[in-house]
Amino acid sequence: MDGDDVSEELDARYLEELKQRILISPFHQWAGMELLTVGGGNAEVAMELQPQHFNPQGIVHGGIIAAMADTSIGLALRSMLKPGFTHRTAQLNVHFVSKGEGNRIVGRGRSVHLGRRMGYGEAEVVDSTGGLLAKASATFIVLPAPGAF
After folding, report:
1. Sheet with 85-96, edge to edge strand ranges
2. Is the C-alpha dihedral spanning 98, 102, 107, 108 positive or negative?
3. Which pTM does this prediction carry?
4. Tag placement on the chain: N or C end, fewer CB within 10 Å?
5. What is the CATH number assigned to the segment(s) 12-144?
């Protein structure tokens, strides 16, 4: 790792802080997302589906699936981002492969590349039986954030 590298697995203290941030985040609370695991370039997020998560056809709204993919990829990358840096989604690509039904979905994100300026990750969103709903990829901008972990 050279001096300009921004990639470094967060230590346990920062991972716990990250978990707490997600727990109290108004967005994650509103959406009903639960962080199951995060660390080592991986993250898993679950959602117990409620009536508001379904579109008029009775299937999980594509925006909900996209949010699960974006969140799981973002957290996977964040788990490898050195203190003093942050990131923002620049592009999200979601490929829907089957309709979402049931009562629970899970997003499993992983960090593929994390450089000084850009990060790239991938995710799968599955239903409660493990059936694949979508595959996603995302590019994130890496930014300095003095004082941030």
Report:
1. 33-39, 42-48, 104-114, 118-127, 132-144, 85-96
2. negative
3. 0.90
4. N
5. 3.10.129.10
Distance CA 103, CA 68 (A): 15
For residues 133 and 107, give the distance between their C-alpha atoms in angstroms, rounded to a whole number: 10
3-state per-residue secondary structure call for 88-120: EEEEEEEEECCCCCCCEEEEEEEEEEECCCEEE
Q: How far is residue 24's CA from residue 33's CA, in Å, rounded to a whole number? A: 11
| H/E element, 129 | none
Percent of the chain exceeding pLDDT 90 equals 74
**Secondary structure (3-state) at 19:** helix
pLDDT of residue 113: 95
Q: What are the tokens at 53? A: 């998560």
Report which of 100, 101, 121, 119 is spatially closest to residue 109, judged by C-alpha positions.
Answer: 121
pLDDT of 13 above 80: no
**Both tokens of residue 129?**
């039986």
Alpha helix locations (H) across 6-101?
Answer: 12-24, 26-31, 62-78
